[in-house]
Amino acid sequence: MPVTCIASAKSCGVTTAALALTLASSRPSLLAECDPAGGTIRAGLLQGQVSAGYGIYHLAAAERVGPVELAQAFASHLWPLDGTTGHRKVLPGLTDPAQAAALSRTWPALSDVLHVMAESAGHDVFVDAGRLVLESGHLHPTLTPAPLLHKADVVLLTVRGTEQGLTLARHLTRPLRAELDEYGSGADALGLLLIEDGPFRSHQVAEALEAPVLAALPWDPETAAYLTAGGRPPRGFARSPLLRYARTATEHVEALTARRHIQQQYPTPAPHPQLAGVLDRLAHRGGARG
Fold first, then answer.
1. What CATH number is attached to the domain comprising 210?
2. First to last CA, the chain
């Protein structure tokens, strides 16, 4: 199963989208709230049920002891999103942005744990990476969980279909592709998650940002409000447009991950130099006759 990082150029529904994907998955799923600017699920959807004694900040001390201690701490800090069934869990985020610096050396080890959850435990894993911050053209080492994006199977840049949304995201796509090429699994790990709030359609957004739209979520204020603030779920929550589209999005992400894994295992062989020269001459000769 894939590990999917979800991020944005500015706050534009990353946590809501991540929750929708986690809750809509047809498999066991996990959401790790890794936004260095602080988590919102604890006070939002969970309405204060989870104390500051739970959450990602406590993994930093465990990681310094060793990988077994980190894995044990990770398991003990998960919180169920679906009552007693436990098929969908969340790792609550930071309660104070000042805690982010303590996690800088924890991100790589946490990424390993998340991939074990995906590959060995069969979970769909979603990472709320929050707002991306660049420094000298690279992901900021403290203000972004850069190692999580580098190791992700898929990175979804969330963008609204508005002029403002495109403007905010435009400066991120090229540096992010370059970063994934240099430190990650390749630039093709990057795709767009379109929030259909605004006049621009998928093909227009893809063209403007020079990246494929891998999934789209509808503008569904009632469902989004519940995921943001909690309370009583709206009637027909599981069949809401947001959850239905999110279910399709998880299937698209899984299909993309499967294709990328195959391509990485069986890369396209480089053409033989002599063969490439013959083909090039034939192509030019054919063009001349045309």
1. 3.40.50.300
2. 49
